[in-house]
Amino acid sequence: xxxxxxxxxxxxxxxxxxxxxxxxxxxxxxxxxxxxxxxxxxxxxxxxxxxxxxxxxxxxxxxxxxxxxxxxxxxxxxxxxxxxxxxxxxxxxxxxxxxxxxxxxxxxxxxxxxxxxxxxxxxxxxxxxxxxxxxxxxxxxxxxxxxxxxxxxxxxxxxxxxxxxxxxxxxxxxxxxxxxxxxxxxxxxxxxxxxxxxxxxxxxxxxxxxxxxxxxxxxxxxxxxxxxxxxxxxxxxxxxxxxxxxxxxxxxxxxxxxxxxxxxxxxxxxxxxxxxxxxxxxxxxxxxxxxxxxxxxxxxxxxxxxxxxxxxxxxxxxxxxxxxxxxxxxxxxxxxxxxxxxxxxxxxxxxxxxxxxxxxxxxxxxxxxxxxxxxxxxxxxxxxxxxxxxxxxxxxxxxxxxxxxxxxxxxxxxxxxxxxxxxxxxxxxxxxxxxxxxxxxxxxxxxxxxxxxxxxxxxxxxxxxxxxxxxxxxxxxxxxxxxxxxxxxxxxxxxxxxxxxxxxxxxxxxxxxxxxxxx
Length: 519
Prior knowledge:
It comes from Paenibacillus mendelii. With about 525 residues, the protein is an alpha/beta fold.
């Protein structure tokens, strides 16, 4: 590669031009210049392969030189030198597509390293791959364009998507941080070329995508190689003090049209890196398993606290909340997950209170939510929730043990526990030790509904939750929720929810607000 060196300090120009290291990487300094205007004339005449320029110079500075040449020679790689490392300069350099930003004083190895990254990236033609990622990362609305692209090349296939991203700065040379991502492709390319699975790379805002294309490779081989390649990428990054990285791995997807979903999975992987630390390999399959276990624990804790609340057990509530606190720490829950769980507990407490005919004023309901959302410490959030739960438990405990509101609340509790099986009014009345006719009248008076209405609505709500699971079909959700006849379930579901079970599942999968009435 032929290099044009531009600097207003003669000593620096001569030092760079005479560096013997250039020969080691098959490069040479084609020309030198003392300012941007002089360099512009030389660049137009000599057409160098790379521009190495200072920023602050007389007559024409390096930024203006780069802006001018970017219009005339858009493919020319530019490396900036500067004794100033203000962020404004770095932003301008990024906008101009600079490949690196090196601050003075520097050593020869800094310049050689930067030029080597340019060399390695130019060994392969990335243009069609960048175009591929630019299109296929778009949402489903662009599927027609994607299908046309695939039809033209006859290349739809299964894939696994990797995403490599720098960890926090691991060494020195902080000035290079805005450009670290640009060196990823060059650093990892020798490794990717040796992969037994064909792969494409594509740029991302802060890292690099690596697409492992299934083609004729069987699924197990593709998945195994994706994990091994991710490990080798992390090891490769660890060899450089400036390139410590972590790698996320998507699920095996059957079609390239699933690229947006794979990217969503990788974002989730990178969120978990905060818990795992630097130089991590994070597979989305593992995250799914963790989330499933976490959701089960959250559901169990919510139900347990609701039961304690119905009995007014203040001591039990305090102990249960301590268990919840430990659970949150054990599963590594993030801030938003903890806030969401605390809000669920508050809503559940309010719901139990309503079952007993107790209400809280609207200001208090809004105030507690503001406190939870503004808290950044887990102990603070749990303290607020505990106050709400204990206050609610105290009010419930004051009610007469078998008051009508209490009977209705206990009926709903029993329905919530046993809705999946055979359940009748007589069975519930026997458990509550009251006459079933009396219980029927109490339920009708207090709720305006019959026992069967409460049972069906509980089963419908359970079915809605089950429908949101990707692996459960509508008829499976119906039977799991206690319905014996799918036709009856479908008719009742549409009457209550406003859409059919299948439409509800499709709306949720598409990210819409499920339950909107079909037209």
